[in-house]
Every structure is written in structure tokens, then in C-alpha cells.
């Protein structure tokens, strides 16, 4: 199990951290983002999408549940926010399993709400608040 930790001194440093993380996504199509409310999951996702060449506006799909972007090679990136999900069946109803099985990058905020639907092989990104603007970003490759 591979673990990488990056110290992020300020929120302005998130794009640099995302640029470091982007190459580490190779071999991972499911990336789950954990962290308390306000830890910077969406801000990090925006920066990561920029690092992957997304030109479109990246925003939280809190009400839509999923947004689709295109990376620099015109491949889809799916961004999920399951904060408002009450039951995993709601995610199933929007076709989450098909997205997860697509082989394309799926960035998933609040994954614990749909844990039963997630494949065992995934990259866990945990953002921990360490100060008013500082964060610890931890990447862990999970296999089961």
C-alpha cells in the first residue's frame, strides 16, 4: 500500500499540490476525497482538474450529484458530490455504477455516503485541516 503525504501551507498552494498529485493518478480511475466540511475537497478538485487540462468551469455538483468535464486529451472526468445523498440507491439511480465502471476518472466527494457502491481499488485522498489555511494532503492507494 503506497502512501504519499503533502503539506500544504496555504490554500493558495493547492494548485501546486494538485500538479504534484496529477501524475500519481496513473492507474486509478476512482479517486475518493475525504475531509471535513471546509477542508478544501472542492477547491482541490478544481485545482486537480486544471492540472489535468480541464478548460471548463469546475464547480461542486452538490445538487446535480455529478458534473462532467473534459481533460486536455478530451477524455471525460466525472466529479461527484454525494453530500446530499440519503441512501446509496439515489446514486445508483443516476447511473453511478456505470460511471465507476467506465474506466474514466471519477472524483468523488463524500464517498462514505455511497461506500457500498465503490469498487475496492481506488485512490483515497484525505485533506486534513492543520491550521486556518494549512492542510495535510494524504494519498493512499486502496485495493480492498
What are the main properties of this structure?
about 140 residues; 7-stranded mixed β-sheet; globular
Explain the overall architecture.
It is a single chain. The chain has 144 residues and is α/β, with parallel strands linked by helices. The protein has four helices and seven strands. It has helices at 14-21, 41-51, 88-93, 96-101, and strands spanning 3-8, 30-34, 66-70, 76-81, 105-109, 122-129, 135-142. Strands 1-7-6-2-5-4-3 form a seven-stranded mixed β-sheet, with helices on one face. α1 (14-21) crosses α2 (41-51). It is globular. It starts with a strand and ends with a strand. The model has no long low-confidence stretch (mean pLDDT 93).
Topology:
Layout: E1 3-8, H1 14-21, E2 30-34, H2 41-51, E3 66-70, E4 76-81, H3 88-93, H4 96-101, E5 105-109, E6 122-129, E7 135-142
Helix pairs in contact: 1-2
Q: What is the N-to-C succession of helices and strands? A: EHEHEEHHEEE
Number of strands: 7
The proportion of residues in beta strands is 25-35%
Q: Name the average pLDDT.
A: 93
Strand order of the largest sheet: 1-7-6-2-5-4-3
Distance between the termini: 11 Å
What's this model, at a glance?
It contains four helices and seven strands; from the N terminus they run βαβαββααβββ. It has 144 residues and is of the alpha/beta class.
Amino acid at each position: 500500500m503506497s502512501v504519499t503525504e503533502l503539506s500544504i501551507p496555504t490554500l493558495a498552494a493547492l494548485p501546486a499540490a494538485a500538479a504534484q498529485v496529477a501524475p500519481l493518478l496513473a492507474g486509478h480511475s476512482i479517486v475518493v476525497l475525504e475531509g471535513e466540511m471546509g477542508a478544501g475537497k472542492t477547491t482541490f478538485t478544481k485545482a486537480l482538474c486544471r492540472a489535468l487540462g480541464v478548460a471548463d468551469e469546475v464547480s461542486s455538483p452538490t445538487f446535480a450529484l455529478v458534473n462532467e468535464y473534459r481533460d486536455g486529451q478530451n477524455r471525460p472526468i466525472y466529479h461527484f458530490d454525494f453530500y446530499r445523498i440519503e441512501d446509496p440507491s439515489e446514486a445508483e439511480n443516476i447511473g453511478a455504477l456505470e460511471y465507476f465502471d467506465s474506466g474514466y476518472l471519477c472524483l468523488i466527494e463524500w464517498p462514505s455516503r455511497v461506500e457500498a457502491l465503490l469498487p475496492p481499488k481506488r485512490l483515497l485522498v484525505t485533506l486534513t485541516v492543520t491550521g486556518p489555511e494549512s492542510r495535510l494532503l494524504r494519498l493512499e492507494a486502496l485495493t480492498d
